[in-house]
Automatic annotation (TrEMBL):
<dbReference type="GO" id="GO:0005737">
    <property type="term" value="C:cytoplasm"/>
</dbReference>
<protein>
    <recommendedName>
        <fullName>Aldehyde dehydrogenase domain-containing protein</fullName>
    </recommendedName>
</protein>
<dbReference type="InterPro" id="IPR016162">
    <property type="entry name" value="Ald_DH_N"/>
</dbReference>
<dbReference type="Pfam" id="PF00171">
    <property type="entry name" value="Aldedh"/>
</dbReference>
<feature type="domain" description="Aldehyde dehydrogenase">
    <location>
        <begin position="1"/>
        <end position="207"/>
    </location>
</feature>
<keyword id="KW-0560">Oxidoreductase</keyword>
<comment type="pathway">
    <text>Amino-acid degradation; 4-aminobutanoate degradation.</text>
</comment>
<dbReference type="InterPro" id="IPR016163">
    <property type="entry name" value="Ald_DH_C"/>
</dbReference>
<dbReference type="InterPro" id="IPR050740">
    <property type="entry name" value="Aldehyde_DH_Superfamily"/>
</dbReference>
<dbReference type="GO" id="GO:0004777">
    <property type="term" value="F:succinate-semialdehyde dehydrogenase (NAD+) activity"/>
</dbReference>
<comment type="similarity">
    <text>Belongs to the aldehyde dehydrogenase family.</text>
</comment>
<dbReference type="InterPro" id="IPR016161">
    <property type="entry name" value="Ald_DH/histidinol_DH"/>
</dbReference>
<dbReference type="InterPro" id="IPR015590">
    <property type="entry name" value="Aldehyde_DH_dom"/>
</dbReference>
<dbReference type="GO" id="GO:0009450">
    <property type="term" value="P:gamma-aminobutyric acid catabolic process"/>
</dbReference>
Amino acid sequence: AVAGAIASKFRGTGQTCVCANRIYIQEGVYDEFVKKFTEKVNAFKVGNGFEASTTHGPLIHDRAVSKVEAHIKDAQSKGGKVVAGGQKMPDLGANFFQPTVIRDMTPDMAMATEETFGPVAGLFPFKTEAEVIEMANKVEVGLAGYFFSRDLHRVYRIAEALEVGMVGVNTGIISDPASPFGGVKESGFGREGSKYGIAEYQVTKMITFGGMGSPLQS
């Protein structure tokens, strides 16, 4: 689960449309997850993309940096604790920012409903299945969602309950040319990729026959 969350959250330095924006962890394993997740993030190497050792690069522009800073400050002002990163990296360039992990996130924080599009992972604790589904769906967008479970009944139950167009089960990577890509709510309408994407370019013709009720020929 840690590896999958890392892959989903920090791909492209958190700037892809399918990056996980909120990460919910059941409170029984919360502290252990935070510890392992933070260790992975601290091992990242931010730098020049032409260097082999670099794992993450800069944000796209200064406005993206400002949004990342605003989300971090908002979380801190409401009780969130930064356990990794949280600072600019001016020695590397104006748009470089440390991969950041914030624990003790709550639903009243900006990151609970706004997309960050940056290297900031907000870790939200939850108690019950019903509670986390309500929190996950309480947004205006619905492109992708991810979750981890070994219970097949829960897998189908959660996958159907999530208000998203794409679901990753036990994986943080879902994009594939053979899969229909698209979301629900404010994340758009229709699909690209797969046979469903091709259907968007097709025109369906309906032909209705009449006068076909003659008796069988003897």
